Amino acid sequence: MADAWVESFPHTASHILDEMDNTLGFKLSRIIAEGPNSKLNQTENSQPAVMATSVLILRILEKEFGFDVKSRIDVTLGHSLGEFSALVAGGYLEFGDALQLVRRRAEIMAQCTRTLVAQSGETYGMVALLCEPEHLESLLRTVQEFLGLDLPGIEGDAQHPVPSIQQVVVANINSRNQIVLSGSLERIKTLLVQLRQFGGHDPRAVKLKSDSPFHSPAMARATDYMRQALEQINLTFPASIPCVSNVSALPFQSEEDLKDLLSRQCVDTVRWWDSIRYLHQERGVRRWIGIGPGKVGRNLVGKEVGRVDTKGGGVWAVCDPREMSDIMAALEETESERQNPQT
């Protein structure tokens, strides 16, 4: 995850990894570098590892390439776990505080999943549903009906009524053609059958690499922890750069708003697509810079925003040190053309 960055920029990268290990009190850097994957993939290790690697890349941009975040970035946001990195980048949270929050939050989430499995005997996870863009609103509405969310249910027929599905929620609205379900995998399968038999939808279903039902009521203990922990650390508000909340799809409005929404993010739907539309349509964002150990964020921005062929625009994933020269050149080129904010 971080090896290529350590090899290319050993001084800056090693400093961040040392800070990570000292903050957590154990050698997470060794697990990141050496594995085994079974240990790295544990929620309590993978989440702080991803967050720390994102900040590591950001610090390399700043120190090795002279990238001044305050002058070149107008707004930040991050998808799910990435919201913590966005808050660090925006100046709301110190790296060490964010790391401790993420680690303990992840431990509690893992405990919630183990308890749920032990009590129910079911397996849990997350499944992405993909459809044509013009069908997204209808699909989402039908899913909510089957889940029994304050909407009229679909009755089926008199002899075979369609029951609402419990222990399944919409965890993410990711793009104009993708939502993510979270909960019992068995019940998600039942929901898919109902969608096809009674709902008039046949979305493509893709199981995600998660064995926990994130962004669902099952994670309520993590929300409780976050509410308490955020009262004990130093937050900076207002910070230097606005940051968009996953829950409201709008910038955090106050310190209390930040505490509330960041806590609720554990159980609420991630409104990523609404956030992107807000930035694109209302803030006029044309340049999008995704920082982290993968290209998921860049891909979720979607083809209809941040187009490279837009004057002064583009969308980049800063995740590979071998691409840094090209990325920095592209940023410099579009900098002179830029008339609108970037994120």
UniProtKB/TrEMBL annotation:
Identify the keywords attached in UniProt to this record, alphabetized: Acyltransferase, Transferase
Concerning InterPro entries, the annotation shows: Ac_transferase_dom_sf (IPR001227), Acyl_transferase_dom (IPR014043), Acyl_Trfase/lysoPLipase (IPR016035), Mal-CoA-ACP_Trans/PKS_FabD (IPR050858), Malonyl_CoA-ACP_transAc (IPR024925), Malonyl_transacylase_ACP-bd (IPR016036)
Q: Which residues form the Malonyl-CoA:ACP transacylase (MAT) domain?
A: 6-324
Q: What is its EC number?
A: 2.3.1.39
Q: What are its GO cellular component terms? A: mitochondrion
Catalytic activity, per the record? holo-[ACP] + malonyl-CoA = malonyl-[ACP] + CoA
According to its UniProt entry, one GO biological process term is: fatty acid biosynthetic process
> What GO molecular function terms would the record report?
[acyl-carrier-protein] S-malonyltransferase activity
Pfam families given in the database record: Acyl_transf_1 (PF00698)
Q: Which family does it belong to?
A: Belongs to the FabD family.
| Protein name per its UniProtKB record | [acyl-carrier-protein] S-malonyltransferase
